[in-house]
């Protein structure tokens, strides 16, 4: 990644670069540190901890959000009910 054409860095360092830029502008670093900590905590609970021995999935999507946001299931179509009038698969001549 390239930050204002000044420095080049890889994507994992973006939060740290933004933190340094925020400090250069004279802003508080607490909000940036909270964001970095929240990102690390989420990554650990979602990707690392469930793969440990005796680990389990701590963060689960609530059922009401799954019902609200998941796409509707596609209804199955019976092959015999398709239009076209061709008898595909029959051995009759």
TrEMBL record:
Keywords: Endoplasmic reticulum, Membrane, Transmembrane, Transmembrane helix. It is found in: Endoplasmic reticulum membrane. InterPro entries: DER1. Its main location: endoplasmic reticulum. One of its GO terms (cellular component) is endoplasmic reticulum membrane. One of its GO terms (biological process) is response to stress. It is a multi-pass membrane protein. Belongs to the derlin family. This is Derlin. It comes from Acrobeloides nanus.
């Amino acid at each position: 990644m390239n930050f204002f054409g000044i420095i080049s860095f890889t994507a994992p360092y973006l939060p740290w670069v933004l933190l340094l830029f925020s400090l250069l502008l004279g802003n508080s670093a607490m909000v940036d540190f909270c964001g970095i900590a929240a990102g690390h905590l989420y990554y650990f609970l979602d990707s690392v901890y469930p793969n440990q021995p005796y680990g389990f999935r701590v963060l689960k999507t609530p059922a009401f959000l799954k019902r609200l946001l998941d796409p509707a299931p596609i209804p199955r179509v019976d092959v015999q009910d398709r239009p076209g009038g061709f008898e595909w698969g029959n051995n009759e001549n």
